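The data are quoted verbatim here:
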Amino acid sequence: MLTLDRPARISDENFILDTDSYKASHFLQYPAGMTRLFSYLESRGGKYPYTRFFGLQYLLGRYFTQRVTPEMVEEAKDVFEAHGEPFPYEGWMTIATELGGRLPLEIRAVPEGSVVPNHNALMTVTNTDDRFPWLVGWVETQLLRVWYPTTVATQSHFIKAILRKALEQSADDPEAELPFKLHDFGSRGVSSRESAGIGGLAHLTNFLGSDTVEALRCGRNYYGASMAAFSIPAAEHATITTWGQAHEVDAYRNMIRQFGKPGALYAVVSDSYDLKRAIVEHWGTTLRDEVLASGATLVVRPDSGDPAAMVRMAVNALAAKFGTTTNAKGYKVLRGVRVIQGDGVQEDSIKEVLAAVMNDGFSASNVTFGMGGALLQMVNRDTQKFAYKASAAVVDGEYRPVYKDPVTDPGKRSKDGVLDLVLDDGRYKTMQHRTFQPDLTNSALRTVYRNGDLLVTDTLDDVRAR
């Protein structure tokens, strides 16, 4: 039997290798006399007019506080040279030995959870050792990934505003209900475990409901949250259909008896066969008295069809069977039951569902949403047009502005200068200085990282408060 020798495994934890291939040649491309480089991160526009900044602390704590070792440098040298790229071996080995593996960088950023209009500097990066200006570009690949949690947090923030408006119009206690109105169903729909963790936690800067367990781990380990979110028992199609269609009502009865405790909530997907029949015959007739007597709240989940039409039908059918009360704002509230829509949920369908329900005189209190791929996966770097660009340098001892200004796309003109973000009369403004020693007295940015150490640690509560 022929056996093949396997190549040596490349380390999963080698910080140096988490970059783009072409970065390895850039140390040979910068001006020979360059000693400093300054770069910044911004949203150049996109779907939303501002961003809610989040996730940098995770990236820095997870990756940038580790120490570069000589073994990492040797491995990176072998990989890049075999890959066809030059490699700054002496520079990285100096970091690993003389600097004790600490990255000679300073990173400043707006406090996480801050809401900042587009076209402003959210983060700045510069080298603290004149020998390593190329390192500022090397780490772009990792640092720019903050676009993902920031974009998720931003989208979630905008949807929260939609839900708040509906609740303020139709609910008695909007602020009590709001944190649980958009539940994260996205873990299975993302590209990786890490995406589930930091993306799921980004959503939780705005809400308290989630089925993404990875977000709980990320919240506890990197943002000091003992419990970042909450959930309730819920059925899936398999736990209903294994009873067989002839015993569908028995599957529902089992849910009541397992989870129908006073004050509790439990969700049951009810469209495995016929949603309307399930509501009218099973829930609303056979099991109605048991549902109400349990003291718990049954949450019926449609899972197919047009979201607005299905939720509207479900709410009206449940109202006919379980009855309603009228709240102080004149809207109807279902007795003992609610509806959660978890299929086809995105920003526009949420608006459509709320409009359909409220136009029928029902409070937004009756409906909750579960959002999956559209929440954590259907975003990309261009959703908010994130960019990380160099803006200033020191070459041969002299300050030099750095920018690009492509004739073919004026929207991609980058800023120049040593940038800072300030709050001027309640408005954010990016300042462009012409020195590497600017006055930062009124800066809205904080130095969060320097020379291998994380200097600021926010809790999830801190982020939510902003």
Notes: The domain at 151-376 is CATH 3.20.20.70 (TIM Barrel).
